[in-house]
UniProtKB/TrEMBL annotation:
<feature type="signal peptide">
    <location>
        <begin position="1"/>
        <end position="27"/>
    </location>
</feature>
<dbReference type="Pfam" id="PF03401">
    <property type="entry name" value="TctC"/>
</dbReference>
<keyword id="KW-0732">Signal</keyword>
<dbReference type="InterPro" id="IPR005064">
    <property type="entry name" value="BUG"/>
</dbReference>
<dbReference type="InterPro" id="IPR006311">
    <property type="entry name" value="TAT_signal"/>
</dbReference>
<protein>
    <submittedName>
        <fullName>Bug family tripartite tricarboxylate transporter substrate binding protein</fullName>
    </submittedName>
</protein>
<comment type="similarity">
    <text>Belongs to the UPF0065 (bug) family.</text>
</comment>
Amino acid sequence: MMINRRDFAKTLAAAPLALAPFMRARAQGGPYPSRPIQLVVGFPPGQASDTVARLIAKSMSDVLKQPIFINNKVGAAGIVANVFVKNSPADGYTLLLSSSGPLAINPALYQKLPYNPAKDYEAVALLDTSVEFLSTARNMPVNNLQEMIAYVKERPGKVSYGSSGYGTTAHIMMEMLKKATGMQITHVPYKGSAPMVIDLMAERVQFAFDTSSSILPQVKAGKLKTLGVSSGERDPVVPDVPTIAEQGVPGFDAAAWSGILAPAGTPAAVIEKLNAAANHALGTPEVKRHYALLGSLIDGGSADHFAQFLKKEQVKWGRAVKDSGAHMD
């Protein structure tokens, strides 16, 4: 049988195109996911965010039929974890669990940040929001926001507030409140919530914002009292605590939050699978119970919902950082 050289050349030229889907599938190991996934967390093992990450990962792995292991990349206010994921392949096998600090505060706080939250990641799913409580020691002669303002203004330069660290949501929240009320109050940053709460109870610092998991146990123990909640609406866990906005600061609405992201360029189909798995995890009884204990509100929703939320939060926190004057070289 004679072979037409022209037809044979065409067949050879078309072969790579015909084989391309097969070769891609083989290179990727078949349909996603075909191997274990790592979830990078910028918090140390045992902290609330790390515990949540492990619960979420376990439930997501049940849906995706692949193990998801936690890789704790701690350091530099979340920068280490964010940079690691930014530089990882955009194939869905390296994910990031990050929060309002690294994603919305750091871009305005750091002069030279080695990642850009608006360009370097794909939003996967918003996990939760956590309101913070303005608090003081039980024996302080202050019972609401207006009394706090009066107390501080009567003692200019002599009152301090604590935070879990420079540039954290708690720090910037108080700076927002200072600007809105004209208070002059000195910031004392700590390395985490635990030592700050100890000093707050001992009145070595007089006021602080912190999450319900840090504050409410001490309120129940009679060592602290809450003056207000940071969100625009009251917290359903403690509905008797008024918001900051209700107490004379209209529009005050701030909360910490966390979510899952992937490197920029991760395929949309992969993002969709991950989003579905994350939403499944958020609906499981075990995860719901854990968030209830933390006093955090479950969010979820589409990847686009998280992407739009991120844009708004970056504007809000960026403005707050600029107004506060806080910066890191």
